[in-house]
Amino acid sequence: MVIFLSGPLGAGKSTLSRAFLREQGITGLVKSPTYSLVEPYTFSGYSIYHFDFYRFFDENEWEDSGFRDFFEENAICLVEWPEKAKGVLPKPDLDIKLEYLQNPDSGLFESRRITLKAMSEQGERAVACMESKHNNEHT
Ligand SMILES: Nc1ncnc2c1ncn2[C@@H]1O[C@H](COP(=O)(O)OP(=O)(O)OP(=O)(O)O)[C@@H](O)[C@H]1O
Ligand SMILES: [Mg+2]
Question: Where are the beta strands (DSSP E) in 53-137?
Fold first, then answer.
């Protein structure tokens, strides 16, 4: 499962990733992969790789990095700044966009919007699962 997280600096990509990792049961430190480009989390049954391509400058590094293998594993890949590696990344199953919303009266950026787009059957199942969970929690 490949999940892209796009949006401007500070939109909340890492915060959402951290929440996702906590939800999966990670209790230890969730480090930012800004410099390492990837932080791996391994469970008994599967792995989650948290990528941040903000500092990925050269797509020629892709082959040497071994990142391709992570995407081919039976793993969950969370990808911040996918647009910085768009020439080499596979297509996502879920495309998540985060943005700031400006209050038209005050001019202040007071809230955020998240948009989820399923890009595969697996992505559709994930969105349907989130929708049903959301509806159960709010009825
Ligand atoms: N949904 C939210 N509500 C309120 N504050 C938030 C929310 N999401 C993130 N923040 C706050 O916004 C700041 C930036 O968040 P975060 O680091 O997750 O952004 P980012 O999109 O990963 O940025 P970058 O592009 O630098 O990686 C943090 O201080 C975080 O606590
Ligand atoms: Mg971040």
Answer: 76-80, 94-102, 109-118
